[in-house]
Amino acid sequence: MHRVNAGYTLLARLKRSSVEAAATLLAELDAHPDRLPFARSATTHFATLAIIPRQQYRDEELPATLLLGTSFAGPAQVHVRELVRVLGKPLRELFAHCEGFEPGCDDDALEEFIAAHRHGDTFYSGMQNLAPEDVQRHRELRDAIETFLDEQQARGALPDEPAAARRAIQAHVRSRPELAWAQQPFAPTFRAWLVLHWRTLIVQGILAVLVLATLARIFFVHDAVVDAGVRYGWLAVGVAALGIVGLVLAVREAEAEQTYVSGRQPDAVVRALAATQNRPVINEFVIAGPIKEEGALRPLFLRIALWIVARLAEGIPGLRAGIVIPTVATARWIAADRGRRLIFISNYTNNAEGYVRDFIDTEAGAKNINLSFGFGRGYPKTEWIVRDGAVTDPNAFIYVVTENERHTGFWYGPYRDMTIDNIEINRQIREGLFADLDEDQTRTWLQLL
Amino acid sequence: MTETLDTRDIQALVVRGYGNLHAARFLLLQVRDGRAEQARGYLRELCARIDRASEPTGELALQIAFTARGLAALGVPERALATFSRELLEGMDDDVRAQSLGDRGDNDPSRWEWGRASSPVHAMLMLYAHDDPAFETRVEHEVAKLEAAGLHVMRQQHTTTLRDHKEHFGWRDGLSLPNIEGVPPERSRKKQQESWTRPIKPGEFVLGYHNEYDAFSESPTADPADDPADLLPATADGRKDLGRNGTYLVYRELVQDVFGLWRYLADSREPGRDPAERAIALGAKMVGRWPSGAPLVVSPERDEPAHATANTFLYSKDPAGLSCPIGAHIRRANPRDVLGSGRSTDDSSVMVRKHQMIRRGRPFGPPVSHAMDPREILAAQPDSVRRGLHFICLVGNISRQFEFVQRSWIVSANFGGLFKDGDPISAARRPPGDPNPNDEFTCPASPVRRKYKGMPQFTKLVGGAYFFLPGIAALRFIARQP
What we know:
Chain A is α+β, with helices and mostly antiparallel strands. Chain A is built from 15 helices and 14 strands.
């Protein structure tokens, strides 16, 4: 089974009369996390439960919504079945406050409800192709090696020569039966690669076929079907390109009309939120708010932009590696309510303000943020979607984040003492432990310890 | 375009540390109940005596700063007060903030000697002068004036200067101050300090000027109705600019356990060297510089005083920390061009420039060795004399600059991919049983690192507060209220 990381985002409308009751239940679960034992899930890295309040977009009411966002590894169906098996009872209690849910339903119906309410997202994982078990095992491996090194150094028994030192470490790991798994090859499979990139591969495949057909038509194939295919193919590409240009121009016009920009939020509110994100290493937050009201085509553009961001985050096969966000374990953007509401969930290193500032400390970073967050109501005015905004008004960027931050009702985050950097270092230790390394690579690997 | 600082309206501490004035005293003040008007009278008189950045320093230099509680006690209108930064308003002793700063255990505000809400500090008057017998008389005179004006002197914070610009542990200090863009040439130090980066935009340190985002830092304002005398300049949106030419001042009183540090260094089991040499070498690894100030990146093997003030070095040539450990104090406090985590050196430099501070601290207490020679310190008999550092820094944004550095770089056990390492010199250790211990020090070496575990805490925070150091016009405004 592959270990591709993905986000499972469930959005379910709350019954009007149940919003408070759902919030109370979440608070109870948060106070007694053993009632919602995500720790028994082998596929879940992180989980967030929150209530997104009723909000207004133009003259449309965006309903109060229950948000369940998990970061998981492996096939989605396996994850959902596991959630139903492990968390069936508390999930039923929660979903009982949602429209269209039968509280006494069986597991199949519960699974169906979860599947039916899954919402697309733009997901990023800094721990791609790692399962929760890998993260824990890699930590154990590192701890075992560290202890061994400390003991050897205390006795003066560790060889000075790097290759010999590494061989001593290998021998120690081989001598520990509980670490036998560390000798197995560890690399993402071809299937995992396909699972991660299939959407981009379809687009690349279509374009590749079109280019090849065009070349064939120019040089040696004279066939009416190929002719028509090439003609209509390029026509479709042209229409799509024009459509995007049209959308950009429409958004550009809407940018000039923007009137509302977020201001400083009440200190007491900001402090209360900050108090929930004050863990020393990893924290989590949820941002949810309607998008800017100017520009009727914004919802459509938002969804297209997030689709493109998702592909860039995964990486484009043969062209560019995926995005690396050093402070983020997992994050997702959700164009909810048909693109009228933007939701963001992040499991990140640092506290909230430090983390948020990290994004805009470079101009390139601030432009990327404009592309993803710039649609939110109150976000500082952008120019041509990526210019200005957070680049020139960092204070307003902080304000819009705090204005739209929502209280997380329940959070599951098992890696409380490790940054994403630590998790990545541990992965590299495991990958390099029994790999074929030259002298320089051996020295570099030893410095991971 | 380079902005020029309006030095006539700026307190001089922003542009000079008074290194030539060896005597200094910081008076922590409290406005007595019902005496606000008299206190304001003192401030009105003080306006003419405050040392400004535009003037040459006289025999006595005075600087003044206020806490949020102090501004309220002096009658600054609530609607103006609310526009100050949340950090100033909540204070350093706020529980959420203390958690974020890592002020727990021995550093917990509940254990502080001053700075707690129960006995609030309202203002700090800083006096700098030449070290002569007249200084004490001047201080006494000023204290008498303050007390007569209803400004109770809660504490007199004595200071000292140590030989060769050192701090009590024995290392040269104050070597990596940022150069500020826009300081008029006649007011800048005779020779701009050599630096790892070009001058930093003035808005990083002085409110009302462009910062490194090419934007303005959040700055307090007043309602025009509250400024009938028209003391403050107008803002673009029709309010009055209370922040312009002011800055935020962070003050933490740190007691240093000099004997504790040197005992730990001496007890280390480094092979092949005489005890003093190995202790100094390990200390240098922890600090990132040799006692003379020579950086390990420049002089990895031995102390070379010729490089004592070297400050143009970068860490990109030492990515694994084999010369200067990633967890070393100076590398944490200012990571220069290497933030790790796959960031480019250019991005790192740009980001690090947004987390700089102007440090204006001074040591206090007698030195263990007047020569400040590490070998003498090591050989000295332990005493119970209190000595340490008044850590003082100036920033345009407390959260982004001081608090970010403290939380993410100094205290963090995970800085730069480390696992259980807090700053070896200045971090508060997390209490036993804490799930995120920060009491290790990792010293990269070949073939593998050496780890130092169970490190004690060598500095203890005994008090602290956030202050606003106003511009002269803003000081007049504060003195005129209500």
